[in-house]
Amino acid sequence: METALTRLTGVRHPVVQTGMGWVAGPRLVSATANAGALGILASATMTLDRLRAAVREVRARTDAPFGVNLRADAADAGDRVRILIEEGVRVASFALAPSRELIGELKDAGVVVMPTVGARRHAEKVAGWGADAVLVQGTEGGGHTGEVATTVLLPQVVDAVDIPVVAAGGFFDGRGLVAALAYGAAGVAMGTRFLLTSDSTVPEAVKARYLAATVRDVTVTRAVDGLPHRMLRTELVEALERSGRVRGALQAVRRAAGYRKLSGTSWRRMLQDGFALRHGKDLTWSQVLLAANTPMLLKASMVDGRTDLGVMASGQVAGVIDDLPSCAELVERIMKEAEDTRRRLTASR
């Protein structure tokens, strides 16, 4: 199925596996790439050396195109961009809008730039700065989210920009792919669906929690880092929502110190990232501390398997997923469902 996305990135199928922190590592990304979709490596929690090593590991596992997700507001974003250029990465994905300068540097090196946005005006801005494509996430998506549903946000963005639009938030099968294409998208991006594959390194006990979840078990809370964050509702999430500011801030400082040690990030750089995070948002400094705490809460579940100590970012689609296929099986299934759906729609005319 050829679309503007497949032509732009060189992949066989218009499906993107999103850059989920602690989840989208070399094994999942390379499995996705080998299945013909676009795998995105999550780099925000990696040191610069680890990022370069992870890119090379993916390259050793696959000859197919893949991408890397970056934090546009990170103090070392420029250093990370240069690693992508030096290592010949095909696609640079951003969780926030990158600067005009970063976009220009990547494009000059032949790297496809695809920021993630949650509003039409943000899509218009990055398109005006030269982004090659834009990934649009509706409120159904996991992790940090907005308030507009994909079915409302997607057509707004498609009508507003002249670059390929990738739809995210609420997609898990071939029917969703056809629906997104009907809206004018060039493909779909999926996070939770790829997390729940046999190629994902997330501990099996954590996957079991996702598979057991219903749509009512997925919630949006501000208790983790002060921003709307979609995740599975657990005892820890409920405890965070009940905890007071002082207790929450003390816990955040302790976990932020752990993240600093793990990632090799200096306190100065963490403060710089905190300033960037706070900019343009109505966040208290306690909430900024909670934001620094978030990577450790995610790691506790996604890496260590401690669902009692960590949080589990999740799209609403977790409530309708009930199996763990390989990436190859998943992508093949999605494409077959999409073709069957298109034939059925054509036959019903």
**What is the rounded distance between the termini?**
22 Å
CATH topology of the largest domain: TIM Barrel
Q: Characterize the overall form.
A: globular
Quickly count the domains. Answer: 2
Please write the string of helix (H) and strand (E) elements.
HEHEHEHEHEHEEHEHEHHEEHHHHH
Strand order of the largest sheet: 1-2-3-4-5-6-8-9
Q: Figure out the total of helices.
A: 15
Q: What is the C-alpha radius of gyration, as a whole number of Å?
A: 19 Å
The residue-averaged pLDDT reads 91
Helix content: 40-55%
CATH architecture of the largest domain: Alpha-Beta Barrel
* CATH C-level label of the largest domain: Alpha Beta
- Residue stretches low in confidence (pLDDT < 50, at least 5 long) are none
Task: Give the SSE layout.
Blueprint: H1 4-9, E1 15-17, H2 26-34, E2 38-42, H3 48-61, E3 66-70, H4 77-87, E4 91-94, H5 100-108, E5 112-117, H6 120-128, E6 134-137, E7 143-144, H7 150-160, E8 165-168, H8 174-183, E9 187-190, H9 192-195, H10 204-212, E10 218-221, E11 229-232, H11 235-242, H12 245-263, H13 267-278, H14 285-302, H15 327-347
Helix pairs in contact: 2-3, 3-4, 6-7, 8-15, 12-14, 13-14
